[in-house]
């Protein structure tokens, strides 16, 4: 890269190439009205972009203070650039570049909670949005309750003034707000957990109840936890993404974010005070987000998780490589159409089969380099809403679950093969990776014993689902294939068995 290229910052805005859009509003007039926790690629491609759209349309005091309580540090990238960054929209050979201006300040709070508390307690902050990943909520995936044995929760309950966890940080902020100005606050989760507002409310309330002093009652009266469905595929940014901005546009940017053209945001209209009018720029405010959330998590995210673990087992690098594989493409479409779609609630304005095709088309975008290992990360926190809940609904409908069970076994096989006993085939990151590795190391290669021991992890598998004979048999059979020398046999067998069941059903209905 050239040594002379300038770094993006306010002084460069007037001199950027015409192909790079810049903020149309006066950033110097922006005042911080909301904070965001977890300034990763997704936030920069989603909430910050919607806010930038809104500021162009109707200027208000909705500048964002971006806070990270986990790595990476923001000071050296976004901080150096006064919050400015380039958002690239990419689809195959199409590229659209825009500098986003809605982030007014960034705060690193990885070492201590104090910098984050300074922002969250401020009376200027009326809204806190967050993308802290599924595991950031410290809840038990199968029940949605606060995990009181989580090491960070244990720490924070003992040291509430110096919290490390998201629930601990939010409760401390609310406690200080109650004790000082008492102004209400909306806490808006933008993570892919089911009923994310309900889960956020659960963990905050459970923690606050343990703090006493009427805090839980104050929260019930002054804090709102709307649920939201968020959508845009925006993988972790790579050095190649950073370099591409310099190659194409001639300036350096250490905080580039890359996303696909599609975006969606559906938010429950349950606010404690003023809210940015994101509904004027494409977001939808609704009474109940559940039908939208099921559609997105079960179809798009369900397909991503399936392609991720099966893709790794098939030796494929990215989502777009996995969905280009004819066998996996056939499998994923049949799984979604036959088993997932019948579990969905009617969604206003969206036809499920059209949504399936649109989702598969999005996953084929070769310019979005979403690594299968990235999507497979924290699978234990994802499979409940993406695979297990639809399986449970299917079973209660008396429908088949043979296809949806294959990616459940896929998640198991992915973690099992990261164990010593299976030769540590790849590094993994998942809160349950240690537990599964321990099971694999003591159990060895017996698929039935492995599946039984993993299905007994009740933080992930609801015991009544884990006891279901049809589900167990399907998972055991798929796991046996996935751990063999021919892992894709699981996919072929799943499809064959589905075909047999389909013929049987059509014969029966002809009688
Ligand atoms: C992905 C999501 O990594 C993952 O778990 O499935 O980040 C996905 O790309 C987004 O939910 C799309 O909106």
From TrEMBL:
Q: Where is the Mannitol dehydrogenase N-terminal domain?
A: 35-279
The answer to whether keyword Heme applies is no
Q: Which residues form the Mannitol dehydrogenase C-terminal domain?
A: 288-479
Q: Which UniProt keywords apply?
A: NAD, Oxidoreductase
Which SUPFAM superfamilies does the record associate with it?
A: 6-phosphogluconate dehydrogenase C-terminal domain-like (SSF48179), NAD(P)-binding Rossmann-fold domains (SSF51735)
InterPro entries listed in its UniProt record: 6-PGluconate_DH-like_C_sf, 6PGD_dom2, Mannitol_DH, Mannitol_DH/Oxidoreductase, Mannitol_DH_C, Mannitol_DH_CS, Mannitol_DH_N, NAD(P)-bd_dom_sf
Q: Which PANTHER family match?
A: MANNITOL DEHYDROGENASE 2-RELATED, MANNITOL DEHYDROGENASE DSF1-RELATED
User: Can you name this protein?
Assistant: Mannitol dehydrogenase family protein
Protein's organism: Mesorhizobium caraganae
